[in-house]
Design goal:
A six-stranded mixed β-sheet has the order 6-7-8-3-9-10, sandwiched between helices. Strand 1 and strand 2 form a beta hairpin. It is globular. It has a domain of 167 residues: P-loop containing nucleotide triphosphate hydrolases (Rossmann fold), CATH 3.40.50. It is α/β, with parallel strands linked by helices. The structure holds adenosine-5'-diphosphate and magnesium ion. Magnesium ion binds next to helix 1. The site of magnesium ion (MG) has 2 residues, from helix 1.
């Protein structure tokens, strides 16, 4: 589905060149759940921006579903992004002065969809926030804001969801609720690519890419048994936490 060959992204900064990406080869199959890890400054966000068609590489080739897109114009990339890709950010990036439903509607407006309200509402329901549709971000918890952001990312039914540290601003338990949504999306066939520096989160993926200095240092397949063990344990913790919430009336 995704094929990167010798991708570089260089930023000229005064007299020096920052090599944010420095020759990346990567193949991602349709339906994979991939985690990208690495120290701060190793090129993870740059990689996500390129994968998500938010930016273009300095050199190298990027094929998405067989199409060579590394030479697309920004306009062509925007159209492709709207159709194929959903993006989730660490800081949610919601419009503050409007409702959850309006936030989720934005990609449909860009796509000039005929029907906006129904799919936007369905996306909010899919992340368990149907009852919060008319709340503004300031009236929602961090976990709820991130769920709105996920609803916005999936409202156009993208084949790929990219998430850059989606649990980075959340406590462990709320982060786990967010991970459950990514697992549910993955089970429904969506390709998930997730940046995280938390090993607990990365180990929930099928494959872990470790980056250093703009290159891929390691590419590891997560042992299936270990992964199901982690997922089962987290599901139990998640179920217990949810039961607890119903009991005490709190949500993450
Ligand atoms: P990470 O997400 O792993 O922390 P980034 O991809 O954000 O890393 O950054 C990789 C390197 O590229 C860093 O050295 C960073 O300072 C540099 N960089 C990222 N974006 C820009 C930019 N727009 N202009 C100049 N340098 C940048
Ligand atoms: Mg980053």
């Amino acid at each position: 589905m995704i094929e990167l060959r010798q991708i570089t992204k260089h930023y000229p900064m005064g007299g020096v060149t920052v090599r944010a990406l420095d020759g990346v080869d990567l193949d991602i199959r349709s339906g994979e759940f991939l985690a990208i890890t690495g120290a701060s400054g190793s090129g993870k966000s740059t990689m996500m921006h390129l994968l998500g068609c938010l930016d273009r590489p300095t050199s190298g080739s990027y094929r998405l579903k067989g199409q060579l897109i590394s030479n697309y114009s920004h306009k062509q990339l925007a159209r492709l992004r709207n159709r194929e890709i959903g993006f989730v950010f660490q800081t949610f990036n919601l419009i503050q002065r409007t409702s959850a439903l309006d936030n989720v509607s934005v990609p449909l407006i860009y796509a000039r969809a005929d029907d906006i309200r129904h799919p936007a509402m369905a996306a909010l329901e899919r992340v368990g926030l149907g009852a919060r549709a008319h709340h503004r971000p300031s009236e929602l918890s961090g976990g709820e804001r991130q769920r709105v952001a996920i609803a916005r990312a999936i409202v156009t039914n993208p084949s790929i969801v990219l998430a850059d540290e989606p649990t980075g601003n959340l406590d462990t338990r709320t982060g786990e609720q967010i991970m459950q949504i990514f697992h549910e999306l993955h089970r429904s066939g969506v390709t998930i690519i997730l940046v995280t520096h938390e090993m607990d989160i990365a180990a929930q993926a099928q494959r872990i890419i470790k980056m250093r200095d703009g290159r891929i240092l390691e590419d590891t397949q997560v042992d299936d048994e270990l992964r199901s063990e982690i997922l089962e344990r987290n599901l139990r913790v998640h179920a217990a936490a949810t039961a607890d919430e119903v009991h005490t009336g709190t949500t993450g």
